Predict the 3D structure of the following.
Amino acid sequence: MNELKTSPLLTTGLSGLVGSTFRDAYSEQYDFLNLDLSDSVQPVDITSYSAVARAVSSSSAKAVLHLAAFTNVTEAWNQTGDTSGSAYKVNVLGTQNIAKAAKEFGKHLIHISTAFVFDGTKEGLYTEEDSMNPIEWYGHTKAKAEEMVIEECNPNAWTILRIDFPFRSLPSLRPDIVRKNIEGLQKGYPLFEDHFFGPTYLDDFAKVLDWVVQTAASVDSSGLLHASSGERWSDFQLAQTLIDLHNLPYEAKSGKLVEYLKTTQRPYQKNTAMDVSKLRSVLPFSLSSIEEALKSVQIDHLSKKSA
């Protein structure tokens, strides 16, 4: 019997929520070389171009999947304006180094971005044509990262995928929006009914990433694509749906973002939901609805009502 051959793939951030979901789903398909400072065998600091260049130049992979990012929005807010802080160094300088190396050594760069590049004032779904206008430091650094990808890479040699509030079906060491929502229910926190977002189902997004890797440099999978769900949910709506679908023994308490904003200096986008029509038109498979995805989520049995 022939052994299954794996394809080489350069990555960053495989230990994160998004990266671990992709790694777990495709570990038998790809031979991952993960550029990570914590790697015990081949540590790579993505904020150092020489370190990135050495790793990228030695790989036969055709693509670089750049998932690593500083994603703690509150901590990033505490670093506002600090270009020597970890949020800026990882998100902007790290991305610039990855993009430069991808161009120098002929790799297609797949960069993961966020709906936080928008200001959140739009009532409907954000499209790829809407201008970026970040209102906090995390969004600012991710917007700058997108600019670095476009400036440094050759045309048709990059893909930017924007996602929003990701979650996966299996539990993770890194809590996602569904698990955080359930924690809010458990603690009796009010859940905003006037804050809207477009949840990203990572089990589906892993398939999107695989498709982009497999079709890298094609017209369909190059450029900027929104890759969330194309739906618009509130925190309260998500909580109530989880209660109904999984028979959870909690009551969702309604809260108002507009009231919470009076208690904090950190700005919050009121809406980050994105239109994914462009992606749907080129994908060779269908994306799950969020309700379908929520049904698949594995929740600790102790959180459910007894039969």
Observations:
- The longest strand covers residues 108-114.
- Residues 25 and 206 are 7 Å apart (CA to CA).
